Amino acid sequence: MATLKELLTERYGKDTGIGDDSEADTAIEALLTRRSIRAYKDEEVPDDLIEVLIACAQSAPSKSNLQQYSIIVVKDQDIRDRLAPWCPRTPGLESKPLLLVFCADMRRNQRVGGFRDRPHVNNNMDTFLNATVDAALAMGYFVTGAEAAGLGTAPLSSLRDNIGEVSEILEIPDGVFPIAGVMAGWPEAPGYVNQRLPQSIVVHRDRYDDSNLEAEIDGYDQTRHNIFPIPDERQTRTDLWGVAEFYGWSEHISRQLGKPERPEFKAFLKSHGFDLD
Ligand SMILES: Cc1cc2nc3c(=O)[nH]c(=O)nc-3n(C[C@H](O)[C@H](O)[C@H](O)COP(=O)(O)O)c2cc1C
User: Fold this and answer.
1) Measured from the CB, is residue 269 less than 6 Å from ligand 1?
2) Which of 2, 63, 151, 180 has its CA 20 to 30 A from that of 263?
């Protein structure tokens, strides 16, 4: 049993002055200690548990209850074997105990409009965003449910690295696209809590104010570095920017974002039924 202060200190990597010595509620403790897990025991996840976890996913809020998402449970070994080479950033994808693909889905309600003889006149940015948010929330609820059941999970945007090939293999039709995969299984090891930005950066009071951002980010870099320093060999894009003497979170993400990621994504959506008007 941990106190709120202990859990919050672990989440932020330092005592940020919030939380007290009261015992945390079990659900709150589960959220505050959650972490991605990428290595699993070679044990199956039972189908009836998967069904319950998908019901957890479907329990997420949904814009106007439009439920604009679909979930593909990928069990067929042949399909997994064909997918894996298109997701090289996730080695061993073909043998993860559980692999699900969460998709934003505008198509279903376009078809429903057809059944009701109504035009669907919302193939636009708003629907794209609503469907993406619905799918992301469903994924989040799936992850929360899975972790409550003792599974380890990790979302996978790597499934979008070759979105055309992945969509073809999964026979994903126009009006639907994968937002991310989720892999899951019984954890091989407990993993660790990954420290988050302090609330002083993320939360704004009454109006947006990031005037102290640089100093605050320096502090966050240092906090993380004190706990998990990143070794030189794990620095990213050293071909472009060399090996940094101090390699913190801000150096890492600015290197990542300093190179275009998935520049073909918009063209993919446009050629797969999304007008994005
Ligand atoms: C939309 C999304 C996509 C992600 N894609 C990947 C991925 O492709 N590979 C991976 O190992 N982790 C992926 N992650 C997991 C993040 O790396 C992870 O959540 C983040 O580093 C924070 O760590 P934590 O979840 O352990 O707190 C993804 C997470 C989200 C929300």
Assistant:
1) no
2) 63
